[in-house]
Amino acid sequence: MGRVEKAGLRVDETLAAFINERALPGSGVEPRRFWEGLSMLIHEFGPRNRALLDRRDELQSAIDGWHIAHRAEPKDTGAYRDFLAEIGYLVPEGEDFQIETPETDPEFSSIAGPQLVVPITNARYALNAANARWGSLYDALYGTDALGDLPQGRGYDAARGARVIAWGRDFLDTAAPLAEGSWAAIEGLSVKDGALVPALREGAKFAGHRGEAEKPTDIFLKNHGLLIRIVIDPSTPVGAQDKAGISDIVIESALSAIMDCEDSVACVDGEDKALAYANWLGLMDGTLAEEVEKGGKTFTRRLNPDVTFTAPDGSEVTAKGRALMLVRNVGHLMTTPAVLDRDGGEVYEGLLDAMVTALCAKRDLDREGPKNSVTQSIYVVKPKMHGPEEVAFACEIFDFVEDVLGLPRHTVKLGIMDEERRTSANLKECIRAAKHRVAFINTGFLDRTGDEIHTSMEAGAMLAKGEMKAQPWISAYEDRNVDIGLACGLAGKAQIGKGMWAIPDRMAEMLEQKIAHPMAGANTAWVPSPTAATLHATHYHKVDVFARQAQIAALRRPSRLDDLLTIPLAGGRNYSEAEITRELENNCQGILGYVVRWIDQGVGCSKVPDINDVGLMEDRATLRISAQSLANWLHHGIVSDGQVMDAFRKMAVVVDRQNADDPAYAPMAPGYDGVAFQAACDLVFLGRMQPSGYTEPVLHARRLQAKAEQAQKAA
């Protein structure tokens, strides 16, 4: 790996070339100022970062000792809570307050809707996510199991099309009801004197049209702040089948999208980081493009333009054509060999991310044309922070970055991932620490469960992974996130989010279940695909989230901290041999299915078949909970080393079969000696020793090993 010297730093030459040749030119930031600023950030903030990680270890050691000392005693949540306060794990809760974040974009303040999370290293996925602001409801219904079954055959099925049209009419009756009758009965649409014909019920909003008023090509409606576009084209198969000539209903879908540099990517060196940053820059300056082959044709995918139409008063309206984009930096834990400090040590990756992603996002603030943020903001999601001290540290980092890059104070808005127990137990004070920056809080069940298991590792054997969602702590966690967010004034300023729907092929189930997220008071929730975003968007037409938030704030009693601190122990539960085998094999198969792609191919997020061949969206959060579950059972003697290894070998054969059609796949069996298989074993057998139960240290080390071996073979 070649390196260049920059202000006392030794920088990977690929990364340095990207910053010097692409990120800095046109940014308004002098190269010398950038590199000296980065060097100062790394050398001044690095030791403080290390001290925060040492504090995590100190607290974990104290908690381990307490559980060991009290393991034989009945569980006393009050005594446990007092102990956590005594060691400083729980901090005193201050007076009530309201956040003071400067103006945020409408996608945070006044419109509720789905949020996509995609790996920034995949340009096609990133562009698809940005362009998922608008989605065809008809396509989403026709091409998935949303209607209860999947399409059959290759051509257009008119009978299925009729079912789609009927579903769409029912949706319009809910989202924009007519003054008289149903949308199912209309035979045409027109605009007269700035009003829709047929007329809408009072309260429903006609937003505008395209084409001639007497014979429009598009009608735009608005409900709960979300636009609906009715496309009229009787020349298409669908339009010809429809008595009003409606060929599609296109709705605002993914209002926002997180471009992820963290859990869904496999960035382990300077080359990987340069790719991630380059794609983020391309999204921010509008130049990102990707050649795509589809249906035997090749085309170039770019960011979609804005959407324009004629308002009822005759003026022109411009609506966003793209999701509002956030970037997720890495947390405080990991270092990266992409840059070495003056002593030759790897630098903290989160510090590098903060400076470079903000530099790239500055391009959006300065350029002409459609902007990502209409309020001149940069949105950074910061994951895996432990408690208010670490949140405050993140805010200081961005103070420094803003000064170096010449940005006004609080340009960078912060998203707090509420996915570590020390953060959820101290959430009010975490928000206070970022009260001038916070624009987003979000629950993450999988990472939060992984941390729950690791933090309480010495308390005893935990319940099986599938039983966790029914435990008191998880409902307290989900409710407290909303309760505290509302009490701190996030409504009307910031997003309160909920987690991912992880089964992208089960859209009928998603339509049935995920309405619980807006009903819970979340003004956004994560979805795994643009299609899922379109279907989930229909929930936000049924639920007025901001009214729901007001209702929750006024009527619901806040959840108790003691419920949050209730450890999900198996207690006297004696699992049968069959139950243990099922849990072992489920976890081992999921770990291997994800890890083999991460290590061998650098794929950080993908649809991985589970043990029943059902595709699940997997990233490091799902890996963390599976690995920590097995590490806990191993530690407490529920399973043995031999049982775990036998399960890994058995499941390696299953994963090999599931990937047999991938020409780039290297089978794990029968040797069981490849780097990926070794990494999976490390995650479990060494899981108890991993910091906070995180998977990154093992994955990064093994991926670097695999890349070195692949390079050696290629040479």
UniProtKB/TrEMBL annotation:
Modified residues (Cysteine sulfenic acid (-SOH)): 605
Limits of the Malate synthase G alpha-beta insertion domain: 156-223
InterPro entries: Malate_synth_C_sf, Malate_synth_sf, Malate_synthase_TIM, Malate_synthG, MS_C, MS_N, MS_N_TIM-barrel_dom, MSG_insertion
EC number: 2.3.3.9
Pathway(s) it belongs to: Carbohydrate metabolism; glyoxylate cycle; (S)-malate from isocitrate: step 2/2
Domain Malate synthase N-terminal: from-to ranges: 16-71
Pfam family, one: MS_TIM-barrel
BP term (GO), one: glyoxylate catabolic process
Keyword Magnesium listed: yes
Domain Malate synthase TIM barrel: 325-566
Catalytic residues, chain numbering: 328 (proton acceptor), 619 (proton donor)
SUPFAM superfamilies with a match to the protein in the record: Malate synthase G
Location relative to the cell: Cytoplasm
Entry's transmembrane regions: none
Domain Malate synthase C-terminal: 579-667
Binding residue positions for Mg(2+): 419, 447
Family in the record: Belongs to the malate synthase family. GlcB subfamily.
The protein's role, per its UniProt record: Involved in the glycolate utilization. Catalyzes the condensation and subsequent hydrolysis of acetyl-coenzyme A (acetyl-CoA) and glyoxylate to form malate and CoA.
Protein name: Malate synthase G
Organism: Paracoccus denitrificans (strain Pd 1222)
Higher taxonomy: Bacteria, Pseudomonadati, Pseudomonadota, Alphaproteobacteria, Rhodobacterales
